[in-house]
Structure formats: structure tokens, C-alpha cells
Amino acid sequence: MNTRLFAGSVMVLLMMPVAATAQSIAGSDPHPDVHLYAAADFGIDPENVTFTKDIAPILQRSCQSCHRADGGAPMPLTTFAEVRPWARSIKLRTSIRDRMGAMPPFYIEKDLGILKFKDDPSLSDEELAKIQAWADNGAPRGDPADMPPPREFARAGDWTLGEPDLVLRSREMTVPAIGPDRWGDIGLVPTGLTEDRYVKAVEVREINDISTDTASTTVGGRWVFHHMTYSSGVLNEEGTGIIGDTRTRWPIHEVGRNADIFPEKFGTLLQANSALHLGASHLHPNGSQETTAHLEFGFIFHPKGYTPEYGNRARMRLGNGTDIDVVPGRAGQEFHSFTVLQQHTKIVAFEPHLHAPGTRMCIEAIWGTNHFTLNCAGYDHNWVKQYVYEDDAAPLLPKGTIVHVIGFLDTTSANKNVADNRNWAGGGRRSVANMFIDLGYSVELTEEQFQSEMAERRAKMKSRNDYDVGCPLCWAPVLPEESTTTDGSAQP
Predict the structure, then answer these.
(1) Pairing state between β 197-208 and 268-270
(2) Nearest to 398 by CA among 361, 423, 368
(3) CA torsion 92→431→171→204, rounded to 10°?
(4) What angle do CA 447, 448, 453 make, to 5 degrees?
(5) Which residues of 86-105 are buried (b: 16+ CB within 10 A; e: fewer)?
(6) How far is CA 397 from the centre of its chain?
(7) Taking the model in full, what pTM does it have?
(8) Do 143 and 50 meet the contact criterion of CB atoms below 8 Å apart?
(9) Mean of the per-residue pLDDT values for the chain?
(10) In the predicted model, what is the mean pLDDT of residues 19-36?
(11) How many C-beta atoms lie closer than 10 Å to residue 120's C-beta?
């Protein structure tokens, strides 16, 4: 058994047999969390692992969305000739698994908490064993007849969700090749809607004049919008601002972030006579050319007449970007944030957001005397990842639950994302300042909805030996329905 201590609690984790257990590479390797596996432990003859039969399918599923000719990654990984020179690097980067520098960049720790997520590209232990055996045995090509058909991708700049029902465009912004970052409000974008519509999905993309024909050495070299925090609401009579109590907050757009597909029972309202308010933009020079760019917001609507079953997004904000105290030259710094749920809540997505020193975030739920770790994820400030739970695995938390996030920061020289580890830093929006925030989103449930969701979970469990760490009351006794007396008061 292996124990992990953090946030004042001991988590006991069941590990695999020693032969297949994660091990550190011996010597002076800079990545102490590398996971090595023996192919034989999975019934695989390591000498028979080839690119065409074993490695290409893994790359197609988990790597080529970025690593292709017009993708955001610095090198394509679609053919044997392209992949072979990188065999040792692929072995190392994939074996890091859930820490800074890992590929693919999906950092959920797989040895605790909830493990069911939508669009999870992470690699299994068996896939890691195949990659490691392939690299260690000279990275052979294999039989060309075993090569799977090439994967087809949308062209660079195409919508990944299909053509939207409504596309809104920000104003053009011109950013010099070299210069300071730009922060601030870039105005309103009227929707033109004449009736209320509920949004099923939203995708934000940057359109710019950077050529996709030339390879980029960095992700940042492809784009100049680092992020955009935006909201929507009904315009005032003058059309110059949004009426305050009509404002809806949308998931933040950030470089490399996936599109948002909302749960079927939950629709986000985009009102008639409304506008997007692009209230907090961050633009940066790309270092190579003056760039003109704008953002496009693509909305896919639910059918007309759709009424969401779940009406309110939960008012749950966890983290701190204002007054934290990050000292220089220290690893393992922890920062904590708590909130008490005022309504039954279903957490739809977990999205750790830190800045350059960030290395990890955990989210916990405390109910009575029980302390549940929902998830922990590594963090790399070069990549922004949103982890969307499968609908039947999303945390179902009763009102009164204490939700707790822990941010882990490293300001030593081992963290290559930190520009100068000698400097103290407080809260702030620049990457050289600090914050730790969970940007995921949740929905509020009524008592009836909460009980219905739990009943669906229980129906899928074979026995009480099946336990749902995200549903602390799933196996609690079901309370009898209340009857009402003649005077209107409730009684058991």
C-alpha cells in the first residue's frame, strides 16, 4: 500500500503489483514522477510492438489533434518518418502522465477520486507499456499493411462542434510583434436576438493573419489572445451597457481550451436584445510579427421551446487571486479555499487555474465527518485544461457540504515555468503574479432533482460494495414522503 498526505488528511491508495507499479527512472532524470511499465506484465511481447500496429492508433486518438501539419503543436506526429526521430522524447513525455510536461496534457491523477471524464485522451498503463517497449527496442516501423487509415481533421480554424446557429465577432485588435501585454475591456457585441434562446454549446476561436503554412515553435506563436473573460445580458435603452441583474457569466476562453458542451438538462440563457460583454481580455505579442486578430463566439442552441430542467448555475467560486502570499524558492506551497453549499449542487466540470508556479490542484468535499477527495490534477501553465465529468459520475453534493480546493505551488528552480524564482509574488492577473481558482462550473438542484439524480446512480450500483465517491448520500436511507395535516403543516 502507498499513502499520500495532503491538506490535513491521509489518503490510502491501492497500487498495482510491484512489477507494474509506477517507478522513477534511475539516475539524474529531471522528472521524478515518471511511470515505467513492463510490456510483459500486460501479456505483450515487447519485441513485437511496432509503430504501424501499436503506436499509430495511440497517436491518432490522443496526440494528432494538436500534432499535425496545421495543429497547434510544434511538430506533426502523423507518419512514421515524422514520429521516429521523437521516439525517446515520446516515451519520456507520455510517462510523466499527470505532471507538468506530460503529454497528452490531461493531468487528472488516476489513483484516486472520480475517473470518468468526457473526451479523456490520457493513456492507459498498457498503452504506456507499449510506447516504452517500442522506444526501447529501436522504434521499429512494422508491416505497412497494419497502418490504420489516416485520421481526418477539420481544417485549421474550422469549428470543432459543427456550424454554429449564431456567430458573434469581437472587434479587431492589432498587437505588435514585440511589446507589453494588453489587458482590459474590448466592448460590447450585440447578439441581434429578438427572442430568448437556450444555448447547448459554445465555442470560441481566434481568427488572425498568422500563416498556418509555417510551423510554430510555441503554442503562443499561433495566437495573440491569451484569454477572454466574458458575460452576456440585456442591453439598456441606450445600448451602451448591460442591465446588471440580467447578466450571465460564460466559461472563460483561454488558449488551447476545448469547447463547452452543457449537460442536456441545463441550458444557458442568451436573452433577446442582449449583448456579449468582453470585459476582461488579455492579449500578448507572439514575438514574430505584428498580428491583427479577433475572436468569434459560436453558439449552438437547443430547439425552440426547450425548457431546461436545471435552471440555475451554482454560485460557487473557489480560490484566491487577490491576497495570497507566495514566497520565493520554495516547493510544496499550499493555498486553501472553502465554501459551504447553500443548495444541492451537481459539479459539471473541474478546471484548475493557477499561474506559472502552479503544479497541482485538488478538490474535496466534506460532509459531516466524511472527507472525500473528488479529484487531484497536475498543472502546467503552458496548457489550460477543463475536465468535464461524465454525466453519471459528476459529483452530487447535498446542501451544507463544505467544498475545499487546494492549490500547490513551486517557486524553486525546478519549476521551469517560473521566470525568476528569487521574487516574492502576491495575487494578480499576470503570469508572474499568482492565483489559484477552480474555474469549473456547477448547477443547483431542487430537492426533487437531487433525489432523482441519486436514485439513478443507485440503480446502476450492483450492491453497497459499489461506492460513488462523488455522491456521499447515495447510500443514505431514503426519507419517507411527508404527508400534510389539515392545517397545512408537514408531519412524517
Answers:
(1) antiparallel
(2) 368
(3) 40
(4) 100
(5) ebeebbbbbbbbbbbbbbbb
(6) 20
(7) 0.82
(8) yes
(9) 86
(10) 44
(11) 16
Helix (H) or strand (E) holding 292: strand 291-301
Residue 85 DSSP symbol:
G
Residues linked to residue 354 through DSSP beta bridges, in sequence order = 436
Residue type, 445: L
pLDDT tens-place string over residues 351-362: 999 999 999 999
- The cell for 252 is 472563460
Residues contacting 61, CB < 8 A, separation 6+: 121
What is the three-class DSSP state of 205?
strand
Report the pLDDT averaged over residues 75-90.
96
> Nearest to residue 278, comparing CAs of 304, 242, 302?
242
Is the backbone of residue 27 left (phi > 0), alpha (psi -120 to 50) or beta? left
Spell out a b/e string for 364-392, using b for 16 or more CB atoms within 10 Å of the CB, else e.
bbbbeeebbbbbbbbbbbbbbbbbbbeee
Beta-carbon count within 10 A of 58 CB: 21
Q: What is the pLDDT of residues 131-162, one digit of tens each?
A: 999 999 999 999 999 999 999 886 666 788 88
Helix axes 125-136, 87-96, angle to 10 degrees: 150
Whether a cis peptide bond, with omega within 30° of 0, leads into 104 is yes
Which residue pairs, CB below 8 angstroms and at least 24 apart, start in 451-458?
A: 451/478, 453/346, 453/396, 454/396, 456/392, 457/392, 457/396
What does the block give as the cell for 90?
515520446
93, 52 Cβ separation under 8 angstroms: no
Calpha distance 26→163 (Å, rounded) = 50
